[in-house]
UniProtKB/TrEMBL annotation, chains A, B:
Keywords: DNA-binding, Transcription, Transcription regulation
Domain HTH hxlR-type: 1-93
Organism this protein belongs to: Paracoccus limosus
Protein name as annotated: Transcriptional regulator
PROSITE patterns registered for this protein in UniProt: HTH_HXLR
InterPro entries for the chain: HTH_HxlR, WH-like_DNA-bd_sf, WH_DNA-bd_sf
Gene3D superfamilies recorded: Winged helix-like DNA-binding domain superfamily/Winged helix DNA-binding domain
TM region(s), chain numbering: none
GO molecular function: DNA binding
Pfam families linked: HxlR
Length: 94, 94
DNA sequence: CAGCATCCACGAAGATACTG
DNA sequence: CAGTATCTTCGTGGATGCTG
């Protein structure tokens, strides 16, 4: 829960499931997240070896974030939590 | 994530899966949780109609907490997150 | 037993500005 | 583009004491 309980981490992971994403790409995909939190959370996921950070030495720099092989285990967690969230939202709507 | 992201809620739910529990029973089962947090989190789960609170008017009072029919949906979430947590712990141990 | 009230500490998160 | 630095705010959770 300490690793996943944050407000954004599972959400970030959910976007990485369908392929690598760049920093600002993630920022756009996740409305409301601050540069700072995206940076910190990506770093935490990286430290847990669930996300890999690849730097392409172009100009300007291009940085890609992708789930590692181990990080793919997050897929199931994301799916189940997401399903639960949707059910809850739907239930409370009606 | 707002509903489940707390430190204890999923853990509390995990203990309720195998049957109703009393307040102090949960306290004993969950080392480290404070009275306050147990109370607050149970209330939150109750407000979400995932947990039902039953008061038996005995002396002293007996209060039971149980998952509702809807609350049983937490079972899958608990299982998957728990599995992930165990895997992570095991991986980092070796 | 099963709590609530109060006060306090700390980390998570937000805002803003700046940089290679 | 992809961040870091700094400051501030806010929510979560802990400690303690009290009650029907």
């Amino acid at each position: 829960m300490h690793l996943l309980g944050g407000r954004w981490r599972l959400l970030i992971a959910s976007y990485l499931i369908d392929g690598p994403k760049r920093f600002n790409e993630l920022r756009r995909l996740i409305p409301g997240i601050s540069q700072r939190m995206l940076s910190l959370d990506l770093r935490a996921l990286e430290d847990a070896r669930l996300v890999a950070r690849t730097v392409f030495p172009t100009v300007p720099v291009k940085v890609e974030y992708a789930l590692t092989e181990e990080g793919r285990r997050l897929g199931k967690v994301v799916a189940v939590v997401q399903e639960f969230g949707l059910w809850l939202k739907d239930r409370d709507a009606s």
